[in-house]
Each structure stands twice: as structure tokens, then as C-alpha cells.
Design goal:
Elements lengths: L2 H24 L9 H14 L3 E6 L3 E6 L12 E6 L3 E6 L4 H7 L4 E5 L3 E5 L9 E5 L4 E5 L17 E3 L19 H7 L1 E5 L1 E5 L2 E5 L5 H8 L3 E7 L1 E3 L9 E3 L28 E8 L33 E2 L157
Length: 477
């Protein structure tokens, strides 16, 4: 081991310790804090994967793991093959070249790609048969590593993530031989749609991950042969719950025997003394060659995944679980000290001003010709209570027309004129209140001047008899 390797290893451990310390100090103590079982799982990941890659601090995902010595065109879920299980759906079986770390990195956590680091693994405590996206059409099927839930939709159309094969080759043991060339991935991304994802279901209080993917009946139709099903007993880390028939591996058995540091160039990594994964054939899914299967439907955005008409045994009677946060030690961003704002005391509502009752305006008086007008109202009478209801004034009965002056006899002297008395107009009496509603007010007509009192007609002049013959007419004085 070189001095450079020792220094790099010490720096990596120091950075990891600082990340965990800051995360522990900054995390609140409560029900949402990291429990001891989760912290032990993170430590198991470090011990199990230290011999096959290096840990690198990431500004967003915390400490991530990068595998050693993989080819430039390497990607996860490419060195191995698929088997269908009745318990969880499609299960990924790693080839011996990647089995030492694949039993962890292909069944826990998620994968992402970076142009500087390449492919790196984000730890996650939830076990699954495989964490992948599925695409399909009538001619091809494809899969890609499932990124964390925070960016699950950002890599759906990235050609660097996907591999494609024809449906009949999906169950081939040497799957890598049938991969479509990389230059055709962009074309196949346009011809296929995302049809399913790996997701978790809830059975009681237990989360169980399933990978339904492409229905096995469809694969059997295109392969023109039955699809075998298997019963798998996978390896899981100690403390993992809900995996039927799993073989638990203790932390002491994870570290390879005789491992002292990073292997040098040209030296294969040491192998850990791990119990084997049991894979036994159970039954087959028969092919229905009488009618082609229905076309695949795109998975709606926001839907976690599909169980199909024949869900795996672990998902029968279960419900789709909500997204599960990946367990990763992240460095909390430095928070600026928040200024304490003075608590605003609740202010009482402003007092409402008493509503002033506006005096109701009496309806306008209708003035008819020949009728004296009422005196104008006072300028301001605040003390007079408003009349609840005002009725239209009743019109007075019409007066009889004036008699024409009678002619008096000639010998009767004219009557003496009496002094005129001023006529005082009287205000009409207030109308009696009635129960019926008041009609809408009518527009008042402009007041007319009061009628002038009738003057007595002048006495008629006495007609003198015409002059007799020979008499001279009297001169007018």
C-alpha cells in the first residue's frame, strides 16, 4: 500500500466522520431522527463496499460509492440476467464478476451518473428485487437504473441510462450479448414508452418492494416458449425486515478476509466469504399463442407503478406505499441566523361606529293647479323622529266653478266693495298611516304660484235710452 493510498483513505474516513457529526448535531431529536438500526445499516454499507470501490462526498447526495475498474461503457444492471419470481416479480441476478458488491448495490439504494465520477451509488436502506424503470413497445423492451425519488423523472429520456433487447431475449442467461447497439438507443426512446417502475407496497405496517415490470405472459408470447418462475432466497443485511426466505448477513461476515486496503492495478478485489444465493426453479408461465397480447400503455406521470392483472405474491392484498426517503448522510447547508421578529400581539378589531339613522325623506307632495301649495319644510329638524311609512297625500275634492256675476237692475245702486282679506294657505293635514307598503316616490313638480283672489267685476253701466227726435245727445263728461 502506498503512502498516497493511506492518505486518501484517511481523508475519506475523516470526511465521512465530519459529515455524520454535522448531520447528527444539526438533526432534531425526535421521532424523525435517525434511529440506531438505520445508522448501523450505513456502517454496514461502508464495511461491505470498501474493498470494491471508494466513497466520495457529494454536494447533494452526501457520501456516495463509486465502483473500481468498471469499463467506460459500463452501467448498472448490465452484467447479469433476469429471473421471474412469484414473490416479487423480476429479480436481478448478478454475474460472478459483480456478485461481491451487486447483492448490495443492485438491491439497496439508487444509481446516478456524473460526467466526472461516472456511475455512483446512493445508499438506501430499503431492499428490493431490483430498482429499475421499464420501457416497452411491440418490438423492444428496455430498463434503466432507478434514480432517487427526488429526480425520478429527470432521466426518463436519457439514452445513457437505458439498454434495450427484443422481448424474446429478456430471459436469456447471457443477456449482454443481445443488447441493442448504443447508437440506436435514441431511436428506441422515441418508439417506446415507460410502462412500469419498481415500487414499494404496504402489507400492514411492512413495506415490501416489488418489480412487476413487463408481464411474463407477454415475454412468453414473443419467445414462443413458457417463461420459468423461480424461488429465490437472497442475501440481505442484518436488520432488513419483510423479505421472505432471505439469508441474513452479519457485519462481521461482510468484510473480505485479508483485506488491507485498495487493490492495486491489475489485482482483482478479494472475495468475501458470503453465503450463496439460492435460486430454484418453481413453475412456468405458459405462452398464449392464439391471440397477441394487448399493446403496452404508458405509465401516467405521478403514478408509482402497476401491479397488473396477476400481481406478485408479496403485493396481493397490499396497497401502494408512499415514496420512501433514501437514507443518505448529507451535510445540511449552513443556515443564516434568523432574526427573531417581534411577536405581533393580536389586535382587537376596530370599534364600529354606530350607524346613524338617516331621517327618511317624506314623499314629495303633488301640487295640482288651483290648490295652495304646502309651506316649505324646516331647514333642519334633527329631533323629529322619522316616520316609518309615508303615504301619498290624498287629493282634495275639486271645488265648484265660480258663478258668473249677476246683472243687477238699473235703479239699484252698486254694492260697496268690501276690504279684501289675505288668504292664508293652510297646510294639509298629515295623512293617516296605512298598512300597505309605500309606493315609490314620484318626482315633484315645480311649485306653482298661489292663485290670485278673484276681484269683483265692475258694475255694469246703465244703458240710457236713445235720444228722441230733436234732442241733442249728451256730451260725455
Amino acid at each position: 500500500m502506498t503512502i498516497r493510498s493511506l492518505l486518501r483513505r484517511a481523508a475519506t474516513r475523516l470526511a465521512a466522520a465530519l459529515f455524520l457529526a454535522v448531520a447528527f448535531i444539526g438533526a432534531p431529536i425526535g421521532p424523525g431522527a435517525i434511529n440506531p438500526a438505520q445508522a448501523q445499516t450505513v456502517e454496514d454499507f461502508h464495511v461491505a463496499l470498501e474493498a470494491y470501490g471508494f466513497w466520495q462526498p457529494h454536494p447533494r447526495w452526501g457520501e456516495v460509492w463509486v465502483p473500481y475498474g468498471v469499463p467506460r461503457d459500463w452501467r448498472p444492471y448490465s452484467v447479469g440476467h433476469w429471473v421471474y419470481t412469484d414473490e416479487w416479480g423480476w429479480y436481478w441476478v448478478s454475474d460472478p464478476a459483480e456478485e461481491a458488491f451487486g447483492w448490495i448495490t443492485f438491491h439497496y439504494g439508487r444509481w446516478l451518473f456524473d460526467r466526472q465520477l461516472g456511475w455512483f451509488w446512493v445508499p438506501g436502506e430499503e431492499w428490493g428485487p431490483a430498482w429499475v424503470n421499464w420501457r416497452g413497445s411491440d418490438d423492444y423492451v428496455g430498463w434503466a437504473p432507478l434514480p432517487p425519488d427526488d429526480v425520478i423523472y429527470e432521466y426518463d429520456d436519457s439514452p445513457d441510462y437505458w439498454v434495450f433487447v427484443q422481448p424474446r431475449y429478456l430471459i436469456a442467461p447471457q443477456l449482454r450479448v443481445y443488447f441493442v447497439p448504443p447508437q440506436q438507443r435514441i431511436v428506441l426512446l422515441r418508439r417506446t414508452v415507460i410502462v412500469n417502475r419498481s415500487f414499494a407496497v404496504m402489507r400492514g405496517n411492512t413495506r415490501i418492494a416489488v418489480n412487476v415490470g413487463i408481464p411474463p405472459q407477454r415475454i412468453a408470447f414473443f419467445a414462443r416458449a413458457p417463461v420459468p418462475t423461480f424461488q429465490v432466497r437472497p442475501r440481505v443485511l442484518a436488520g432488513t425486515q419483510g423479505v421472505a426466505g432471505a439469508v441474513s448477513v452479519r457485519p462481521a461476515d461482510v468484510r473480505p478476509a485479508g483485506f488491507t486496503g485498495r487493490p492495486g492495478p491489475g489485482h482483482p478485489p478479494p472475495r468475501a466469504n458470503l453465503p450463496p444465493v439460492s435460486i430454484q426453479r418453481a413453475a412456468v408461465v405458459q405462452a398464449n399463442t392464439s391471440a397477441p397480447p394487448p399493446p403496452l400503455q404508458a405509465l401516467p406521470r405521478g403514478e408509482r407503478g402497476r401491479l397488473g392483472t396477476a400481481p406478485p405474491r408479496a403485493a396481493q392484498g397490499a396497497t401502494v406505499a408512499p415514496p420512501h426517503e433514501q437514507q443518505r448522510p448529507q451535510t445540511p447547508p449552513p443556515q443564516a441566523p434568523q432574526q427573531q421578529r417581534p411577536q405581533q400581539q393580536p389586535q382587537p378589531p376596530p370599534p364600529q361606529a354606530p350607524q346613524q339613522q338617516r331621517p327618511q325623506q317624506p314623499p314629495p307632495t303633488i301640487v295640482r293647479p288651483g290648490q295652495p301649495s304646502a309651506p316649505p319644510p324646516a331647514a333642519a329638524q334633527p329631533s323629529a323622529p322619522p316616520t316609518p311609512r309615508q303615504e301619498e297625500r290624498r287629493p282634495e275634492p275639486p271645488r265648484p266653478p265660480a258663478q258668473p256675476p249677476q246683472l243687477r237692475p238699473q235703479n239699484e245702486p252698486p254694492p260697496q266693495a268690501r276690504p279684501e282679506r289675505p288668504v292664508t294657505p293652510q297646510a294639509p293635514p298629515p295623512p293617516p298611516p296605512q298598512a300597505r307598503p309605500a309606493p315609490p316616490p314620484q318626482q315633484a313638480r315645480p311649485p306653482q304660484p298661489p292663485p290670485q283672489p278673484a276681484r269683483p267685476a265692475p258694475p255694469p253701466q246703465q244703458q240710457k235710452p236713445p235720444p228722441k227726435p230733436g234732442e241733442k245727445p249728451e256730451e260725455r263728461k
